[in-house]
Task: inverse folding
């Protein structure tokens, strides 16, 4: 079972992602802000295989989380959800932290489209479940 | 009184002649030898001389030459004996007026003298005519003054002459002179009444002075020139105004100026005054003309400048107006863009929650078809909302995207290929006027195609009953121009004003964002998008895109 960390400061967003991913056969851990996300990722108590990261969050942003992980040399596969199409400003940072531009999805995202990207990132075939 | 000089060595003849001439009222002087005759001619002015051709010592022909040299105006009648006819004819060539053969007949002599006097009179008239011709052929003041002085010396038989005129302070100055040093010429300034010239100007009366000033009570305190034997000072008057003073002096000529000379000089002076007045008028005229030409030039210059300033002003005004409009348009779009961007960000999250929830529900095994359908509609409408927001964002922050060298004809043709068949089903034909081998432009091909598609769709929507779309590519200065001309409904002015407004639409199902997006894209390419339209005739959409530079590749 793969565990996915969902990071979004909006509870409803985090919940809909969680329910969908659980239904799709994944384990899910939620974080409602950047600080929590960093704590979960660095504590080591929970193994995270992939994170779905909101960019725009108060205090610690998605970009901050990526930077922190890069600084600690812990590169974890990530899918970025952006609230705007204006992804250009994230691209430089993304590339710097080891992510491809294809890892950015713009909200609102079709959940099944998200699922495809998740599976691809985890190296699962299209019909495979989260096992 | 007419003066006659008789020169003959035969005393009898001298006596007969002088008696007969005096009887006729002439003043007669006589001489026995040629030398004596010449001496008399030097000291007095005679009108006629009777000259014996055969004189002892100096002969008559030589005497004739000498006398003529002294006074060119004197008329000489030669008196000849038998056998000297040939010499008599010779004298005529040398300036004699006539010859009379001895024995002398007093009547014959009288006739000849009268004729000579008549000729002399005529000569004077001719001389005056010649003077006036010379004077009036010269209009430039400096040349005229020189001509006058030269003529005065010749006509009034003087050794030197000068003219004084009034300066701007109404003081007399020497305008031209023969016989005065430059120093005196420059420094002399006389007030009315000062010295002799001043006196003449004030009293408007010509005077003759003999042997300088000593003999005249009026000027006894004034020191004159020692070398002057006699002089004549004449006022030059025109229209009751004294223009100046003419002075003529005799230094070597021993004969003094006479009243006849004064009379002559007054005629001369009146001619001179007229000429001076003319020259003054001419000078004024020339000055006025010059000023006129100058001011005309200045006026032309000013007019030119004004015109160019006006032109610039017009240009600037037009540019300002265009800029203002563009600025207004883009500032409005920019403000709207920020709003849309912020709004999109805020709306996208709940939108995703809604669509996500709908998708989650649809993952359940739902038996109720109506419920299922409702959920589907919720999801689909969320997708639609997403599309609208995407387009809004695109126009609010148009970026140039990926710039590449583009062949516009190809780019247009790709879009036309996509739609042509479908359009033909609605009765719409497409005419192509492509610029073969157009210069490249730098643009984002996808964005350009979106613009073309948008414009073509608008044309199609305006031609419900079919029609023609004419696509023309051409060069317009440094721009590539693409025209989409349709034969559709056209737009009234109120609609034209609104076409770039976001959310403005005339279509039932339109978002009102099509042309806003097009506008944003073309602007981002430093181009222009404009429309011309006539209701019921059609609309032409024109795109101008800057040509790519070689260095841009």
Result:
């Amino acid at each position: 079972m793969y565990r996915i960390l969902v990071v979004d400061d909006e509870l409803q967003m985090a919940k809909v992602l969680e329910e969908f991913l659980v239904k799709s056969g994944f384990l899910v851990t939620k974080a409602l802000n950047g600080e929590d996300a960093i704590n979960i990722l660095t504590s080591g108590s929970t193994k995270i295989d992939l994170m779905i990261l909101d960019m725009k969050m108060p205090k610690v942003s998605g970009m901050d989380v990526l930077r922190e992980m890069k600084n600690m040399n812990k590169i974890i596969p990530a899918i970025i959800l952006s609230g705007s199409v204006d992804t250009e400003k994230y691209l430089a940072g993304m590339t710097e932290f080891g992510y491809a531009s294809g890892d950015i999805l713009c909200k609102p995202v079709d959940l099944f489209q998200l699922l495809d990207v998740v599976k691809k990132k985890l190296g699962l075939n299209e019909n495979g479940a989260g096992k | 009184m007419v003066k006659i000089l008789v020169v003959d060595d035969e005393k009898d003849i001298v006596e007969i002649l002088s008696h007969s001439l005096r009887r006729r009222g002439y003043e007669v002087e006589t001489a026995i030898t040629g030398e004596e005759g010449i001496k008399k001619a030097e000291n007095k002015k005679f009108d006629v001389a009777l000259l014996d051709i055969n004189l002892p010592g100096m002969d008559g022909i030589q005497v004739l030459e000498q006398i003529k040299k002294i006074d060119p105006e004197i008329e000489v009648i030669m008196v000849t004996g038998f056998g000297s006819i040939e010499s008599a004819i010779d004298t005529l060539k040398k300036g004699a007026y006539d010859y009379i053969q001895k024995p002398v007949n007093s009547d014959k002599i009288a006739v000849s003298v009268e004729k000579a006097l008549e000729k002399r009179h005529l000569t004077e008239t001719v001389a005056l005519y010649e003077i006036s011709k010379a004077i009036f052929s010269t209009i430039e003041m400096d040349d005229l003054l020189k001509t006058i002085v030269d003529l005065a010396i010749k006509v009034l038989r003087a050794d030197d002459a000068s003219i004084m005129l009034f300066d701007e302070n109404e003081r007399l100055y020497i305008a031209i002179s023969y016989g005065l040093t430059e120093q005196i010429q420059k420094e002399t300034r006389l007030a009315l009444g000062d010295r002799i010239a001043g006196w003449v100007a004030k009293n408007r009366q010509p005077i003759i002075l003999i042997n300088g000033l000593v003999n005249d009570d009026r000027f006894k305190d004034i020191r004159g020139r020692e070398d002057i034997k006699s002089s004549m000072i004449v006022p030059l008057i025109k229209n009751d105004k004294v223009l100046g003073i003419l002075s003529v002096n005799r230094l070597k000529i021993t004969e003094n100026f006479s009243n006849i000379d004064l009379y002559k000089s007054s005629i001369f002076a009146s001619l001179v005054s007229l000429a001076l007045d003319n020259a003054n008028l001419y000078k004024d005229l020339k000055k006025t003309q010059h000023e006129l030409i100058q001011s005309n030039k200045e006026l032309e210059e000013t007019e030119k400048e004004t015109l160019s300033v006006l032109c610039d002003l017009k240009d600037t005004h037009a540019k300002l107006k265009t800029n203002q409009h563009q600025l207004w348009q883009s500032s409005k779009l920019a403000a709207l863009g920020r709003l849309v961007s912020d709004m999109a960000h805020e709306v996208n999250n709940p939108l995703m929650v809604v669509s996500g929830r709908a998708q989650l529900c649809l993952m359940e095994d739902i038996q109720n078809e109506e419920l299922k359908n409702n959920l589907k509609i919720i999801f689909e409408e969320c997708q639609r909302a997403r599309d609208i927001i995407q387009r809004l964002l695109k126009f609010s922050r148009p970026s140039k995207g990926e710039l590449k060298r583009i062949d516009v004809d190809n780019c247009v043709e790709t879009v036309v290929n996509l739609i042509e068949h479908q359009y033909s089903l609605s009765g719409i034909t497409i005419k192509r006027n492509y610029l073969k081998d157009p210069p490249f432009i730098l643009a984002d091909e996808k964005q350009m195609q979106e613009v073309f598609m948008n414009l073509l769709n608008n044309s199609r929507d305006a031609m419900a009953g079919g029609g023609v779309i004419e696509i023309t590519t051409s060069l317009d200065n440094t721009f590539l121009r693409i025209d989409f001309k349709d034969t559709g409904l056209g737009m009234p002015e109120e609609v034209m004003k609104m076409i770039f407004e976001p959310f403005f639409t005339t279509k039932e199902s339109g978002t009102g964002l099509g042309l806003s997006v097009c506008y944003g894209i073309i602007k981002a390419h430093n181009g222009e998008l404009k429309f011309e339209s006539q209701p019921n005739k059609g609309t032409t959409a024109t795109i101008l895109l800057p040509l790519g530079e070689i260095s841009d590749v």
Q: What stands out?
A: Residues 423 and 429 of chain B are 7 Å apart (CA to CA). Chain B has four domains: 3-132, 138-281, 288-396, 404-552. The interface with chain A takes residues 341, 344-346, 348-353, 355-357, 359-360, 363, 382-383, 386, 390, 393-394, 397, 399 of chain B (CB under 8 Å).
